[in-house]
Design a protein that fits this description.
28 strands, Molybdopterin biosynthesis moeA protein, domain 3, 4 domains, alpha/beta, 7 helices, Molybdopterin biosynthesis moea protein, domain 2, about 400 residues, about 15% helix, 6-stranded mixed sheet, binds molybdate ion, binds ligand LQZAQKY5
């Protein structure tokens, strides 16, 4: 049995992204659009502000009535209306009169400035004003911010709180977004038990389905955690058929290597739409990717927990972000300086879980987070990892002081 040629990490990442397209856009209420990627440009439907309005609680006045007013020359005028924010009244403010006005209320016709209440005696039938307002004082003009038709948000924006506020202010109750991918998570392995239950001899807790479900959430998807299933081919095939109509993607762990009971490979490798093969990567060597006959995307990851974490960050997260509409979902790496040295297997691109020390303004410093390095079974050490240091396939040893590329994890 010879070793098949290994695909590089970059080739596999390209193959994954090339096979995926953003999910078709749909209109959703803006209250549900947070975190999604906008599918179309959004323009303002109205001017912002919508109408000239007061920036202060005070009095809408005709400035000409108050030329020369001051503490030593107070001017007393009748109050002809009371205008709270939200009023539909539009009283005419004639010469020698004022209207009491609150912040956000529309400026009444005839008035051309606002005097803050602090510069008055706060009267309600007549008011004594002891300041001369500047021209157009404390008026917020219609369209100061945006004119109708102005661009508010660009297609491709991942919507955050401030984007939603701008869209709402511009008159939009719904937005066209790429939906969040729904992603089923299934762990395969007869040895797996639910965490917290006592494992019998030979059994271990299923950690992968929890890692993957939470990773899907953190990547902006909606996880459907099925949990652990035994290595039974017909049961596994039935489960896939049952789950796939309800989801956009399925992330599997385990059963993709060359073992005698590798159920994922046994059931899926015969499909022409699935690719299986070794990657020149450590950890994460055996992988599968493709889709089921109904189009559901499948990521088949190796079972070792660190391999699952690394494979998610390098392939699955970018893939899910592509489904979610991100134009360039490839991971962003930063430079880090190795605090200690470690070994890397020749011919495989290594992803070493590392602690990242951001330092005080200096370069990021990194060191392996697990006592025993990048072993793919070291699930305990994952908890201390802030990111993954990438070591090129042709490098067999990282020395203290070397610069490595680091993929920062979700914190
Ligand atoms: N003869 C060979 N054996 C192996 C090779 C190889 O090239 N030749 N590759 C090794 C590498 S590298 C990896 S990675 C694993 C991948 O194997 P599988 O994807 O088939 O995974 P399993 O055998 O099902 O499990 C591997 C390991 O991970 C544990 N595991 C599985 N699922 C979970 C889970 N949900 N939670 C926690 N731990 C899990 C499982 O018990 C095994 O210890 O193959 C190597 N072997
Ligand atoms: O590829 Mo395996 O994930 O190295 O342990």
């Amino acid at each position: 049995m010879g070793s098949p040629v290994k695909r590089s990490v970059a080739e596999h990442q390209r193959a994954v992204l090339a096979a995926l397209e953003p999910l078709p856009a749909r209109d959703v209420p803006i209250g549900s659009a947070g975190g999604a990627v906008l599918a179309t440009d959004v323009h303002s439907r109205t001017p912002i502000p919508l109408f000239d309005n007061s920036a202060m609680d005070g009095y809408a006045v005709r400035r000409a009535d108050l030329i020369g007013a001051g503490p030593d020359h107070p001017v007393t005028l009748p109050v002809i209306a009371d205008l709270p924010a939200g009023t539909s009244a539009r009283p005419q403010v004639g010469p020698g009169t004022v209207a009491r006005i609150m912040t956000g209320a529309p400026m009444p016709p005839g008035a051309d400035a606002v005097v803050p209440v602090e510069d008055t005696d706060a009267g309600t039938t007549t008011v004594t004003i002891s300041a001369e307002p500047a021209e157009a004082a404390h008026i917020r003009r219609a369209g100061d911010d945006l004119a109708p038709g102005d661009l508010v948000l660009r297609a491709g924006t991942r919507l955050t709180a401030r984007h939603l506020a701008a869209a709402a202010g511009a008159g939009h109750g719904t937005l066209a977004v790429h939906p969040k991918p729904r992603v089923a998570v299934i762990s395969t392995g007869t040895e797996l038990v639910d965490p917290g239950t006592a494992p019998a001899w030979g059994q271990i807790p299923d950690s992968n389905s929890y890692l993957l479900a939470q990773s899907v959430t953190e990547a902006g998807g909606t996880p459907v955690r099925i949990g652990a299933v035994p290595d039974d081919e017909s049961e596994f095939a039935r489960l896939l058929a049952e789950v796939s109509p309800d989801v956009d993607a399925i992330v599997l762990s385990g059963g993709v290597s060359v073992g005698a009971f590798d159920v994922v490979k046994a059931v899926l490798a015969p499909l022409p739409s699935m690719w299986f093969g070794p990657l020149a990567m450590q950890p994460g060597k055996p992988q599968g990717f493709g889709h089921l006959a109904d189009g559901t995307v499948v990521f088949a990851l190796p079972g070792n927990p660190v391999s699952v974490y690394v494979s998610f960050e390098v392939f699955v997260r970018p893939g899910l972000r592509r489904l979610a509409g991100d134009a360039d979902p490839r991971p962003v790496l930063v430079d880090g300086v190795a605090e200690v040295g470690w070994r890397s297997p020749p011919g495989r691109e290594q992803y070493m879980p590392v602690v990242m020390d951001d330092g005080a303004g200096g370069p990021v410093r990194v060191r392996p987070s697990a006592r025993r390095g990048s072993g793919s079974h070291l699930v305990g050490g994952l908890a201390g990892a802030d990111g993954l240091a990438r070591v090129a396939a042709d490098v067999s040893e990282v020395r203290a002081g070397d610069t490595v590329a680091v993929l920062r994890g979700v914190s």
